[in-house]
Amino acid sequence: MMERAPKLMAAVSLLLVIIITLWVGPATIFHQLSLIGAGTLTQVFVLSIFIILLNALAVWCLLKIFGPTPFLKYLQYYFASWSLGSLFPARIGDFSLAMFHRQLGTTHKKIILAVFADKLITLILVLVLVGVGLQELLVITPGLTSILWVSTGITIGIIVFLVALFLSPHIQDIVKKFLPERFAHALGELGENSVQLARNSEMLLANLIIALARLLLQGLIVWLLLAAQGVSISLLITTMLIAFASLSVFVPFTLGGVGVRESFIIVLFGLIGVSASTIAVSAFVQLIFHYLLVVILGVFFGKQFIKKNS
Q1: DSSP-H helix ranges across the chain
Q2: Which of 95, 159, 211, 301 is most buried, by the most CB atoms less than 10 A from its CB?
Q3: Span of the secretion signal (predicted)?
Q4: Are the beta carbons of 235 and 219 closer than 8 angstroms?
């Protein structure tokens, strides 16, 4: 059953993309795509590259807390693991980065903790963006109130639990009682490392700034694509909704949230009056550029890694 899981997840993601395409209509999608000029597509592609670099830089800042990590060497392994994470389900990309711990000069547990902390900080920023943009958004569509408040409440609960789990020995002792001995021991080690991580305010601040820039660039990409199709909405609201939709990567039955994320985006933007065809094209352009970069970086750095270890 476990061997079939990756294929099943990929099939679910592909099925969702096909359903969205057929629902919106291929002809409509191509028409909307024709409205986007080459200049906008070039800007989006360049911004997509910057986002990947910021992703890598954000985790690297946290890894530096545990010791010196050569950035160029780390970048090579990060791009390889990022490509794997985009092509395979679950958190394979994160764990593949941990597999390179010997080359990076740190333990795999510290790498996993740095990746986890980066995602946690991003989650907190998503909540901040939701809070900042909520008042402006509710003026446009009051119907979003209940959806956003319930989702925000759940997300806050998850964040509070995760922070307490890694910073409070008392909470760790409670959770350890329900875990096998091997995992309980690993949790204790992660708890010790998390204290070291939490004490380095400079690197945490650097990660926070990078994560914020990353979210803003993601919102800017969609804002540019919508503007090219004649849709004018606030950059703040665009960034908030895209950040909110990015939580779909945690949906366990899809390939990195593909299909679910696009569905979330269509629903959320539909609530503020953006047509399904317009936002679907914007989401699909992002998806295409994402996997184009996956192929380019994956092939290049994969070859480098194989050559170095052959």
Answers
A1: 5-24, 26-34, 38-63, 71-87, 92-99, 101-104, 108-140, 145-167, 169-176, 181-198, 201-228, 235-245, 260-270, 276-309
A2: 211
A3: none
A4: yes
Whole-prediction pTM: 0.79
- How many Cα atoms within 13 Å fall on the side-chain side of residue 100? 24
Alpha-carbon span 195 to 214, nearest angstrom = 26
pLDDT over 80 (residue 23) = yes
222 pLDDT higher than 70: yes
Instruction: Convert the pLDDT of each residue in 174-205 to its tens digit.
Output: 766 665 565 555 555 555 666 666 677 788 88
> Closest by alpha carbon to 119, among 218, 12, 211, 27?
211
Closest CA to 62 of 201, 157, 264, 231: 201
Task: Please determine, for residue 1, whether its predicted confidence score (pLDDT) is greater than 50.
Answer: no
What's the CA gap between 271 and 148, in Å, rounded? 12
d(CA 309, CA 77): 13
Q: Identify the CA nearest to 60 among candidates 100, 29, 22.
A: 100
> Cβ distance 56 to 78 under 8 Å?
yes
Question: Which tokens hold the place of 9?
Answer: 């997840």
Of 216, 228, 217, 222, the residue nearest 280 (C-alpha)? 222
Give the rounded distance of the alpha carbon of 284 from its chain centre.
16
pLDDT tens digits for 65-90? 777 777 877 877 787 777 766 666 54
What is the CB neighbour count within 10 angstroms for residue 3? 6
Mean pLDDT value across the chain: 76
Largest Cα separation within the chain, whole Å, is 60
Distance, CA of 194 to CA of 238 (rounded, Å)? 33
pLDDT at 11: 76
Q: CA 262, CA 234: separation in Å to the nearest integer? A: 20
Closest CA to 167 of 144, 197, 203, 211: 197
**Spatial distance between the Cα atoms of 219 and 235, rounded to a whole number of angstroms:** 7
